[in-house]
Each structure stands twice: as C-alpha cells, then as structure tokens.
Amino acid sequence: MKKISVIAAAVAASLAAGSAFAEDKVNQGWQVNGYGHLLYNVGESLAVNETWKHRDGYRAAGAAFSANPNQIEFTVTRGDNYENGSWSKYVLKTEYGNNEDNPSFSNSRGFYTSSSGGEGFGESGQLEFKEAYVELGDLPYFAEGTSIWAGKRYLNRQAGIITKEFWKQSSGVGAGIQYNNMGLAVISADPGVSYDGKTGELNDGDSTTMTSVDAYVYGIEALGGRFDFDLKVMTRSNIDDGNKATWNGGVKADSGVGAAITYSRDYYGFDGWSLTAITYGKDLAAIKGVNFGQWSNMTDGDESIFVTSYGVANVTERLQIGTELVYWDISNDNINDVWGSKDGVSRFFFGITPSYKINNNFRMEAVLTYAREMLGEEGTWGQDKNTNFYSATIAPVFTVNADYFGRPQIKPYITYMKSSDDNYAWQNDSLGDDTRFGVEAEIWF
User: Fold this and answer.
1) Pairing with 304, which of 175, 234, 346, 397 sits 20 to 30 Å away (CA)?
2) Residue span of the signal peptide, if any (predicted)?
3) How far apart are CA 67 and CA 109, in angstroms?
4) CA angle 239, 241, 247 (to 5 degrees)
5) Mean pLDDT by 10 residues, the chain (445 residues)
C-alpha cells in the first residue's frame, strides 16, 4: 500500500531550469511552492466581539475554527549547482492574510475583505516576508555535507495535523551551520506582543530582543524508527528594573532552556506514519520548550511539559484515519500564577479524522475532537475550573486527489460544538453549544 507523507504532499514545480555543471544537489533554477487556505463560515460576523475566534489552546479543531478567511503563501527558491561541487539556495517566502487585528490576542482574526482599495486599514498581517535567507553548501574548504545559512527563516518547524498548532520552530533572524543531520543556529526575535496592532507602535516603549541558540541532531535510527533531539538556550536583552514587571505580578524572564525528543516511525506498528514528541521548557522557553519566536514573552519561573503524538493510519485502500493527542501543562511556583490562572494551566486534546475515498476525486471526512482545560480555580477566565469541549465536523470533499493529504480541494462542512460549561461563549449569541456550516478551500503545491 502506498504510504502517505506530509512532506511528499508539497511537490515542487520547477519554472525555469538552468544548466547544471555537476551532479545536482539542489533543484537547479527557479521553483515556486505555495499554500492557500480560503474559508467562508456562512452567516458568521467577524465583528470583534462576534467571531468564534481561533480556538488557540487546544479547545477544538477543524475548518470552523481556522483563524483567517484568507491565507495565501508563496515560496520562491533559486537553486544553483556549481562545477566544483558546491551549491547555493536563496529562499523567499511571502504570506498574505495570516493577520490578527491585535497581536496581543492570538485568537483575533481578519475580515471578509472587499475591493475598495483600503482592505488593510485597521489590520496587521497583510503581505509580509516570512522567510528570506541564503544557504551555501559543500564549499571546497568545508567537509562534504556542510552548509551555512543566514537570514530570516522558520527553522525546523513541526505542527499537529488536526490542531495545526506549531509546537516546534525557531522563527526569527539569524544564522546557522549544518553538517549532515546535525546543526547549530542562533536566531533572534523581538516580542511582538508589545506592539499595538493598529498603529504598529510599541505599547510600552521598550524593545527586549530575545535570542535562541539551537543545537540539534536528527535522524538517529533506533527502536524501529528515527529519533530527533533539540536543545535551545534562550536569552533576552534590555531587561532592567524599569520594564521587568509583567501584568500578572511576576517578572519577565531574561533566560531559559528548552529541549525535545521526537520519535518517528510507522503508525504505532501498523501501515502509515506517526510522530511522538515530549518537550520541556523553563522560564523564557516555557512555551512548549522548543517553540521560539516573538511569542516567547514568558515570566520568570514558568515551566512546561508538552507531549504530542499524531499520525495517519492506512487502514484499507480507501480508509485512512488521522489522529492527534496533546497534553500540555504549564505552571509557575514563584508566583503561583500563569496567564492569570492560579496554580497554572493544563490542557488535554484528542482528535480523530477518518477519511474515506469514494473515488479519485471525492472523499468523505469527519473531524471529531475532545478537549479538557484545567485551571487553578473556579471562575478563572470566566469559566469552570475544569471544562470539557467537544466538536464534530462532517464534510464531503471535492478534490483532484482523494488521499488524506491530497490537494487542492473544496470542502463544504457542518460543525457542532459543545462545552460542559453552559456559559462558555463560542460566540456572543451562542452559549454552551453551537452549530455552524461553511466552505473551506485548500491547496498546496
């Protein structure tokens, strides 16, 4: 049976091939890759207080909970192979529509834009450069298999297949060196949460640049699979008595350490693939340990354990089942408070997505999720101390490739969502539960 891979789903299309002088080590010439996520939630208002919002925090997942109506990405790469065996790559990724009306709130979202010419007014996250870096490999004075890079990039990104939440990356500007399956990188980012999303100005007048030193070794074969190891040491500059206090009574962390072990294999002994990871983070690295970027604006004493396991089983020639499990616990013994929750926050999420291939151009898909959020005390964030969340989505999928990761596709869907807290607001006019429907289109190439 053909095995399905997330990586294999993104196939490069070469637009103009140059002449290679030696064995090609990178795709010669120009190539373009892209991603598009286009969403219409029928009847939903995107007014600030009316939207369902992106369910950040692993409460629910599926098309209905995606963050933006329109998200478009293009990655342009120039590759060259040289006569002496060296090679070069220039990578430029642009993105439109992954916007938030205020970066201080990760559950914000954009609007249904029209054609007035002023679509970007009042929004951030319009057309932006997400990656722009140069990489040189196999230079004659380096050992074979060595490359160096500098610029802006997402380094070693990993995300869940149902939640779509990134749990590992280093996102920022920096440089690095890699030798075969091991590497060392230094990446810096400024905390975007201190910016006003409408004016672009610093809210508190300070800039406290954060830096992560990444060391990693990937592809160690053992126990019938492959192990990856990550270690990140983070620091933060310009922290002094004047800007060290945080809103929850603690102080901003000026350093931290995070680590992760990842194990990849078939689908737990069956046909397919799976990835299992455990991460640890302390202080500045407390956001899942190895998820570094402008959001790494943590408090001194924050500590987290993050566990995830996801993959796709090829059950029959027609039936594939994707699953994702997450457990995330974050606490702070210094101030007994995390994000306003006494004794910290614990989250559990499990999702399952059966996909049944009717023919090469049509499949049926369901997304079933359960989540539990455990807070320090009753009334935190205006909800119960322990709250359960349920969601169920069913969707006919029109596609040119009916595999689990086959794209492009257009997917009408209907979603039912429910909370054990009858006062939990999925939307202002829907407390406790809600039923919605819409259409999602998605493409990658």
Assistant:
1) 175
2) 1-22
3) 6
4) 80
5) 37 33 82 94 64 61 79 95 96 81 46 66 67 97 96 96 95 97 96 57 64 98 97 89 65 93 97 98 95 90 96 98 97 87 92 98 97 88 89 97 96 94 78 89 95
